[in-house]
Amino acid sequence: MEELVSIITPTYNCAKFIGETIETVKKQTYTNWEMIIVDDCSTDNTKEIVENYSKQDSRIKYYCLEVNSGAAVARTKAMELAQGDYMAFLDSDDLWMKNKLEYQLNIMKENNWNFTSTDYEQIDENSKSLNKVIKTVLKIDYNRLLLDCPVGNSTVMYNVKAMGKFEVPNIRKRNDDALWLQMLKKEKYIHGINETLMKYRIRNNSISSNKLKVIKYHWILYRDIEHLSVLRSVFHICYWCVIKIFRIK
After folding, report:
1. Same domain, 144 and 237
2. Which member of 21, 41, 119, 124 lies 3.0 to 4.6 Å from 196 by CB, making a disulfide possible if both were Cys?
3. What is the rounded radius of gyration, in angstroms, for the C-alpha atoms of the chain?
């Protein structure tokens, strides 16, 4: 019997995009999945859209937090509810290629890999390609991830039977990086797959567009969660800033 893949999707006020995201899951060539969407108390019509899909397809499951708590809490709740042998992560505004689950799962089984990520393409708010593909790294360990996370959140899949479940560190931004770091303390590598299987949406109002705020969350990640020294934390923030500057140029 095919392994069940649990798709982890936290959401908040994403009514504009979440229908398109769900459609790319429904079109997957691999069909033994459950999509667990945990709503962080959206104030738009996200609930109505998702519940309409869940009525049509029992694999799509909608849950809403009692109070607005942030993406990390929503993601942790989804992971708690997941029943799958594998977990795949998909943000509520990103899109998957139709062979994403099948291709990635086959590669993982063939190579006995427990933790993987893939390449991804950037798109704009209207789902138009920005003609830029972000390549993952073939072997990512804890120290490599600290330097400049080469992992697209919505590309990640891992073997739950081999690695277990995790709690997402509760910070508003960079909580995905914080989760990968926790997981890399149990599994040595995230294995990169150089195949473009996801489309990452660039949104003008996203928190990641405010670089000063992101620096603050990096500091929290390095010092409060990973307990790095002040010197090492400063080094990693400076490294991140330099990388961003060169990418902009």
Report:
1. no
2. 119
3. 17
